[in-house]
Amino acid sequence: MSGYEINFDGLVGPTHHYAGLSFGNEASTKNRNNVSNPKLAAKQGLLKMKALADMGLKQGVFAPQERPHVPTLRKLGFRGDDHSVIEQAMRTSPELLSALSSASCMWTANAATVSPSADSADGRVHFTAANLNNKFHRSIEHETTSRVMAAMFNDARYFVHHTHLPDNDHFGDEGAANHTRLCADYGQPGVEVFVFGRAAFDSARLAPRKYPARQSLEASQAIARMHGLSDDKVVYIQQNPAVIDQGVFHNDVIAVGNQNVLFYHQQAFLDSASKLAELKSKFGDETPLHLIEVSDSEVTVQQAIQTYLFNTQLITLPDGDMAIIAPTECRDNPSVSAYLAELTERGTPIRQVHYHDVKQSMQNGGGPACLRLRVAMSEQEKQAVNPHVLMTDALFISLNQWVERYYRDVLTEQDLADPALLEESRTALDALSQILNLGSVYQFQRG
Ligand code: SUG
User: 355 has which bridge partners?
Assistant: First the structure.
């Protein structure tokens, strides 16, 4: 196999809770104010990472961010020492404190868009942190995301880091959740598929009516330019506005691709037939491209949203077969589990299904695929990655001990004002930045 794909999973932060912050993401709205369990959430994520590492995949860990985010509270006029800032925010604006305490950076599929060196004009791996400007609680992520990525991929010979796109709705960018790369092998040039929800400068185009389209065409085009991608290896596809209105807030809730397989729902795209024909022609015919379309009669859009059938990870195992890493919600739905069982017998590269319990994340609308950022790289590039963020037996043990020591197993909105929570989180992140050898990536460490 030439090249690797490494999944960098977001480690769930200590303030994980259910705040109902994401209009258009129905799980987030529905579970608002449920009691969360940050310790269990972090452990569920770690188990998934370890399982993939044990299957022979390369697996990385992406550090969480400091929350509540006191610097933003100060920016918004709260004064005094840190505890008094939080106490005032809770008293006058609990929703604001909750938004600024969200552990949403766990969904690293939204952290950035990444183009591997095989696709870029200068032969380096390109990263652009997503501005996530459609949701206030997520719009504050990119600064620390960029610092964490710079600490993980810190070698300018191989890695290029771009500044996030302009902080405006016209350039709404949600990162890799709307970006899929198809290729014969990870080290070979591939076709990068950008799925957008609306065109900011073209009001004649169809757009959803009920829920927001978070990704703009203009953002996707800017990223393709910045990453030095060639036009004949890029496809832009508009997401079907009707599915956004049903709760498909990112393309990765309705489609997933890996190497020469694209697995998607019949209703995922606008102009599906012509766009998929363009994809086929740009992919070429040296390697067969498997377009696995799931019809309404097999699985409805509603079932796909409820079970996250497409927010699965499609991975290539060391022997070349592909496996689907699915949430247990897929196993528990009779039609979806029957579909998956049948899919592995169909003669496509997908031969196995593995179920994982990531319920703590699912209840906020984040499945297995939301929790990971994929980076395809060569052996040489992999050697240049900060080795402390790569999963090993020892790191798994140490991160579980770290979670056990610092995380709570019950968290409600009221707890967010507890001064002890701020101290616990900072102490935890300080310790984590040493375990992962990240340096001072957090504001509280930088003074
Ligand atoms: O941006 N949920 C996230 C879920 C992101 C899922 N990512 C991908 N599909 N790649 C979002 O909507 C909910 C937070 C809350 O309500 O507490 C939230 O931010």
Answer: 326
Q: Is 179 a catalytic residue?
A: no
Contact 25, 365 (CB under 8 A): yes
Question: Minimal CA–CA distance to 407: which of 87, 19, 12?
Answer: 12
If you search the block for the tokens 């906020």, which residue do you land on?
364
What digits encode the pLDDT tens for the residues 267-298? 999 999 999 999 999 999 999 999 999 999 99
370 classed as catalytic: yes
Q: Is residue 394 exposed (0-12), middle (13-18) or buried (19+ Cβ within 10 Å)?
A: exposed
| Residue 236, strand partner residues | 194
- Cross-strand pairs, 217: none
Does 28 sit in the ligand 1 pocket, CB within 6 Å?
yes
| pLDDT score of 447 | 79
CA of 417 from ligand 1 middle (Å) equals: 22
What atom of ligand 1 comes closest to residue 110's alpha carbon?
10
- 310 pocket-lining for ligand 1 (C-beta < 6 Å): no
Task: Find the helix or strand (DSSP H, E) in which 314 lies.
Answer: strand 313-316
Q: What is the per-residue pLDDT for 27?
A: 97
Task: Say which amino acid occupies 433.
Answer: S
Non-local CB neighbours of 383 within 8 Å, separated by 6+ positions:
none
pLDDT band at 96 (very low <50, low <70, confident <90, very high): very high
Over residues 308-319, the mean pLDDT reads: 98
Question: Annotated catalytic, 174?
Answer: yes
- The H or E element that residue 98 is part of is helix 94-99
Condensed to tens digits (0 to 9), the pLDDT of residues 12-69 reads 999 999 999 999 999 999 999 999 999 999 999 999 999 999 999 999 999 999 999 9
Mention every residue, 6+ apart, whose C-beta is less than 8 A from residue 342. Answer: none
Closest CA to 160 of 229, 234, 63, 226: 226
Is 1 a residue whose pLDDT tops 80?
Answer: no
Chain-centre distance of CA 58, in angstroms? 17
Give the residue from 26, 205, 214, 209 showing the smallest Cα distance to 109.
214
As a whole number of angstroms, the longest Cα–Cα distance in the chain is: 64
Return d(Cα 127, Cα 105) in angstroms, integer.
16
Selected catalytic residue, list 5, 66, 141, 174: 174
Q: What is the Cα 8 distance to its own chain's centre?
A: 9
Asked if residue 2 has pLDDT above 80, the reply is: no
Cα–Cα distance measured from residue 321 to residue 317, given in angstroms and rounded to the nearest whole number: 5
CA distance 250 to 195: 9
The answer to whether the pTM exceeds 0.85 is: yes
Residue 124 CA, ligand 1 centroid: distance in Å: 30
Residue-wise pLDDT for 209-265, tens only, equals 999 999 999 999 999 999 999 999 999 999 999 999 999 999 999 999 999 999 999
